[in-house]
Amino acid sequence: MKIVVAGTELRxxxxxxxVMRNDAVPIPCTLEAEIRVDESIKSGLEExxxxxxxxxxxxxxxxxxxxxxxxxxxxxxxxQSVKIxxxxxxxxTVSFVxxxxxxxxxxxxxxxYKASGATLQSIDADFPIDxxxxxxxxxxxxxxxxxxxxxxxxxxxxxxxxxxxxxPDLFKQEPVxxxxxxxxxxIKSGFSERHAVQSFYSLDENGAFVYGNKEKARSARFMPxxxxxxxxxxxxxxxxxxxxxxxxxxxxxxxxxxxxVNAPPLVVVTxxxxxxxxxxxxxxxxxxxxxxxxxxx
Length: 297
Prior knowledge:
Helix content is 14%, strand content 45%.
């Protein structure tokens, strides 16, 4: 895995482990890593520093840095291990608790990101949000997730671009990879889905009930000021069906479609690209792990 700190690309043996995740959430990329450092790169891994990661050279902002005890290396230089957690640099601010409220009406998703301090240039397939409110003491991530759910889709970060996808459109893409049906761990959750995937209802301007998806028996919840389409979108979601471990492939991102041989295709909800070095006597290992989902509702 390529990691550049203060303009210097780290050797593979300095990266004890690294996990770069791409996820269908408001901050779509994260990095967790443990790196052996000396004084030449130590300052570049402090909290608040920005590092470059991966084949697409995405920028990550370090939000947590933990320094271990110093050790003597084979060439007699003092080294120590630093564990870091980093978020995608152009939207990490949406994870912070607000000291000032954000209240917007008829604003686009990208405008809500920018009001939260993000530096995204734009969002492909951007959409308007009728009402966006994030109060003091809350973080914008929850309210962005809610807006995405109400509009029936997710965002995807791929090749330096943020894109909004409606859930049905995810399954209209060309698959980026194929796996055998029996080469992945199956997850069955029908009973839990009936409780976790709710149906919703509201009232219109005349006081009449408006219902979302009632095709299955589900727990129901009232949501004010919503139309039928929004209520249906709240029930529509991606449900995890398989977990697969494949050869290391950074090109796969959340939102990509995976072909399952002799079975319906599934969408990647989370992908973790994992690298571990052989610094403790073991062999270097790289792999990619996929959490795959179908659409419910």
